[in-house]
Amino acid sequence: MLARVLALAALLGWFAHLPLLTTARDGSWWQSTGATERDNNNKSGGYSDDDGTVSHDDAIDNADAKQRGSGDGGSMLYGGPNTSAILSTSNSSSDLSIKIKNYYNSKKGPLFGGYDPYIWDDDWSNLNPKCPWANLTFLPRPCFTLHWICVDQETLVTHDWRYSYANPRREPLPDMPWVENWNFPAAVGANTDALRGRGPRYRLHMRPASAHEPTAALRNPVFTNCTLPLIIVADFPYNMGEFFAKVLTALDQLSSTAFDDKVTLALTTPMGLDLAPFHSLLMMSYSRYAPTTAVEMGSRGCGDKQLTYNGRICEPTADEDGRGYRSSSRSGCRVNEAVPWSVEATQPHCFQRVVMCKWDLQIGGGSPLAAVARRVVSAFIAKGMLPASPIQYPGSSSSRETNEDGVDPDPRGSSMLRVLIESRQGPVRNIKNLEELLAACKEVDQIGFSAGSFDRLSCAATSFSERDGFVDRDRFLTNIAAVRSAHVLVVLHGAGATNSWFMRQNSSALVELRPCQFGTRFAPWPDKYMPKQHEKNDDVIRFFGLNIEDQTQCLQGDIETALRNHTYHRDSVGWDASYFARDQHLVLKPGPFLEFIRHVGELLFDVQQYRDVRDADRLHGYVLPEGLMYGPLSITNLTAYRTESNPDVIPF
Ligand SMILES: *[C@@H]1O[C@H](CO)[C@@H](O)[C@H](O)[C@H]1NC(C)=O
Ligand SMILES: *[C@@H]1O[C@H](CO)[C@@H](O)[C@H](O)[C@H]1NC(C)=O
Ligand SMILES: *[C@@H]1O[C@H](CO)[C@@H](O)[C@H](O)[C@H]1NC(C)=O
Ligand SMILES: *[C@@H]1O[C@H](CO)[C@@H](O)[C@H](O)[C@H]1NC(C)=O
Ligand SMILES: *[C@@H]1O[C@H](CO)[C@@H](O)[C@H](O)[C@H]1NC(C)=O
Ligand SMILES: *[C@@H]1O[C@H](CO)[C@@H](O)[C@H](O)[C@H]1NC(C)=O
Ligand SMILES: *[C@@H]1O[C@H](CO)[C@@H](O)[C@H](O)[C@H]1NC(C)=O
Ligand SMILES: CC(=O)N[C@H]1CO[C@H](CO)[C@@H](O)[C@@H]1O
């Protein structure tokens, strides 16, 4: 009896989208995901040039107003079945499947316009092995499935009967999820968040099929089940750290439960922007097809391409439904070429199923970051894509460091501590005296260096991007090779820290430098990203924060300077003390810095010792005017801490 009640509850949840049972009308689909209240003061990212406040942004305020205005939709409309209900009856789930299937079957008929409107979303293993396999039964909440969809540029055209105007009991169209937060990827070599670079929120449109479809492919839709697009909607899509932490880990998880690698990955990029090279490279492990953008997937076919790429004139589209050539059909083509994102011989425009997932600041993430990083790097290694490290440490023969296909020997050893310092260009967060630090490393190495098993020290510097901030495909892969040839990666808080995930695990460390006040007064911002994430991932990369709290070692960033001297317009720069703190340059005194590096070297290999020191609140560093102090993260008031705890300060 109980089982029957539960099964009924599950059925009600499952069928809540049917007109008779529908209660909510305009709830955004993600409102039912239990997403917590949006927090306007939270910075995003934390790794990257793109991280920023939400607080000054009109788009966000609108978004909030909208969320408040639309009430608690809380419906099950587009979220798939009530998973918890079904799981709670897990021992009767096959029973349940049959019941649901029968329900569907009994509803088939002419009313549904000839299409089965509610395709049974279980596995597709009965399909041609060339076609995607998917099990969409238990998609996680931020994902949902749409049926009978054509894609035309930025618009999803639904042929689903439940949304048709011809259906007197039609439902409102589902709300397409927004790319709510994103910073415009300008070619300026600086974080556009500090430059008010926030883009207006963006989403794809959705409309029902009409009497005036623009192309032959849309007028005569052929719905394929051999291409399964997964349209990804993500906050901060151009922020590699966010993308890696939220999208890639979620994708990794889905790939082990819901899809095989024949899925087509399409990222929603605002305003027709292209993918960044890191998108394609990071997603490579999850689809055998080239990732694309949602808009590219909706491209109309051969028209422009044929004219520009091989000079062939595109034949004007004739209708294939017997009505002949219409002057209105100027776009689209009779002949569609194959596309790299599908196995099919010609570009598909219409799909039996399209899955959409929205991963944002609140919802996202899946598999552990370190595991995903291992998978991504192994794929590069297996394909022979990793170049040799660009960094030549003394005493290493370059031949030993050349990666051969499928082989990735560890060149580092355990006697010379290899330190790689990120050299940043652009107007903010540079280390102004890199050469001095490199020279000091050499000197210390000559005088005598000792840290754990290490008795030599070697430092090198590298930039992770071009001057304009661009990271092309080769640079991205070279960066990975570079960090894998080092024991310690030193970065200023920012995008460079994301590379720490690609280091060799269990024998590498990340040192994150935080300029004056950023690691103390504003500590909650940087402290909640890298340190938390690495700790959550079993410290396979050891995280060390070094907070520079000596004013003589911090310099105002160029953006703040230009703002204060009226070179920059007030309207084009975010006036925010936390940005100013983050964006300072550093002029590091070599003494305390290298003492800290020695401390890192001592704790590098022994994770237990590392954790003991962390538990003893002596892991992270604070560079004071008097010297170097060890302490925990998140000391927001150094004066108070020093009064209470009276920690030693190593004088310099
Ligand atoms: C899903 O089902 C469970 C168990 O029946 C129930 O407790 C829960 O409230 C349901 N969730 C929603 C969103 O309806
Ligand atoms: C699941 O199976 C167990 C034993 O096999 C049974 O006691 C239990 O009532 C079942 N639960 C449901 C929801 O059917
Ligand atoms: C589909 O996924 C669900 C939940 O993960 C699982 O219970 C079911 O067995 C899967 N079906 C197939 C055919 O793998
Ligand atoms: C997929 O489409 C092909 C061709 O239309 C059809 O023969 C096949 O039954 C479909 N398979 C499924 C599982 O829908
Ligand atoms: C890291 O070391 C731990 C033991 O300290 C071990 O369990 C784990 O498998 C190692 N991970 C990798 C990736 O080497
Ligand atoms: C203002 O600051 C910018 C950035 O540091 C600098 O390039 C410029 O020369 C300064 N202008 C004046 C008048 O000081
Ligand atoms: C830090 O603590 C000291 C006393 O320990 C207090 O005088 C000072 O105002 C505090 N600073 C801030 C910024 O709260
Ligand atoms: C101001 C602030 O930091 N607010 C919140 C940011 O997000 C975390 C977790 O999502 C909350 O715990 C903070 O309160």
Textual characterization of the structure:
The protein is of the alpha/beta class. The protein has 3 domains: 33-126, no CATH class; 144-299 and 349-367, no CATH class; 397-554 and 586-651, Rossmann fold (3-Layer(aba) Sandwich), CATH 3.40.50. It has helices at residues 2-14, 58-69, 83-88, 93-107, 216-219, 240-257, 277-283, 294-297, 303-309, 369-382, 434-447, 473-483, 524-527, 530-536, 558-564, 577-582, 590-603, 607-615, 638-645; strands spanning 143-152, 155-158, 205-208, 223-224, 228-234, 263-267, 292-293, 350-359, 416-422, 456-462, 488-492, 508-514, 541-548, 554-555, 585-586, 620-624, 627-631, 649-651. Strands 1, 2, 3, 4, 5, 6, 7 and 8 form an 8-stranded mixed sheet that branches. The protein has an 8-stranded mixed sheet with strand order 10-9-11-12-13-16-17-18, sandwiched between helices. Helix 6 runs parallel beside helix 7 (277-283). It is elongated. The model is unreliable at 1-118 and 303-334 (pLDDT under 50). The protein binds 2-acetamido-2-deoxy-beta-D-glucopyranose (8 copies). Residues 637, 639-640, 643 line the site of one 2-acetamido-2-deoxy-beta-D-glucopyranose (NAG).
